[in-house]
Each structure stands twice: as C-alpha cells, then as structure tokens.
C-alpha cells in the first residue's frame, strides 16, 4: 500500500511540474509581433479633408470609382513581445499573422526611430510612384509636381496604387474615362521609378482587408501569387502584375477595352 501511495505522489508531483512548465511556456514573452488586417484607403479620394493626390503643373480630371490600397496593423506595441499563448492562438486564426518582431520593428531602434523609418519608407515610395507615373505620361518632374498625403500609413507597399492614382488623375484611360471604369479596385505592391512592381509583407491580411471593404478585384505582385492563393477570401479575384504597364493593361481588360485580365 505504501508503495502504491508513493507512486501516486510521485506522479502527482511530476504532473504538477509539467503543468507548471506548460503554464510558464504559455506566458513567456517571445520576439514576435501579431498583425491584423488594417484599414484601406482610396488614393483618388481625400483623407481628413485633404486630397491624397495633388498635382501642380498639369491639368487634373474628376474621377469616379476607387483605387483602394491595403494595409496591415501590428497589435503588438514596438516595446513589447507576445506571449506564447498568443502566438499559438494566432497560428490558428486566419485573421491574424505572427511574424518575427524584427521584421516589423527594426532591431535596436527606439519607438521614435521606428516611426521615422516608416515615414521615410513611405516618402521614398511616394517619390518612386510619382516618378513612375510621370515617366509613363511623358511628363517632366521638373514641371509637374505631385504631392501625396496619407496620414497614419507607413512603409513602401502603397507605391503601385499611388502611381495608378496619379495617372488616373492626370490622364485617365486616355479617352476621357477612368482607369477604374467606375469600379472599386484594390491593390498592393511596391514600385520602382522604372515601373517595376515588388513584393510586400502581410499580403494574406491585405486580401482580407480589401475584401472586407467591398473590393472584388485585387492587384498584387506576380511573385506573390502562390502565397496569396492560399488565403484568398471568397469572391476576391487576384490580378498579378510585374510592372505598372501590366497593371494598366489589366485595368484596361477589366473595363472591357481589350486584352485579358491576368489571374494567379
């Protein structure tokens, strides 16, 4: 009897230790950040009463439809880490993503430095977008100035949509119509001054963001087709592009003005 009691006590002690270790592991902070779908914004519209796109030195036109960029938001503050339990929960939640913290907040940077970094990335993206759009239009950046204003959005992933918005504001489809054909078009992608479209982070969450806001056609970098397909929300068409010209051709096809709409 004493032997059995001793075994039971030993098992209970071991179980308590295991449970304690599990609890500690679940509560331990990890160097990750949790991302969720963020707001979307129409680059053809206004934010806080200020037009997102303002042009000097060239005539602009009234537009219809929307060119809506997508964002993701970190729910993990720059000076915090997530608990193991949060990481586990996020892995099984399609509306959240867990990424290395350094991928969201550069290591060794203060909160102020991180904010400045994001603003600089956005500024660089805006300059590249303006250069790519004016290059397509055959306009000189010395004569035509573009000002892009979008508060509370950082990073480079809005470049493609900014470039399309500038072209729509100045030229439209070249025949008096809109690039959008009056539709709401979503999109994401970095852009270089030569019009090359690059990959972005959090594309799975950006798909959810645009679909939530009524988008049915979503322009994405072609290199991210496979990733985007794994999380594509029902009713969302993925339109892959490699360049600004590809995006313009895709919008032309969507308007029924010729060509075929590409798909992943």
UniProtKB/TrEMBL annotation:
Q: Provide the GO MF annotations for this entry.
A: ATP-dependent peptidase activity; serine-type endopeptidase activity
- Top-rank taxon, per record: Bacteria
Biological processes, Gene Ontology terms: proteolysis
- List each copy of the Lon proteolytic domain by range: 154-249
Q: What is this protein called?
A: Lon proteolytic domain-containing protein
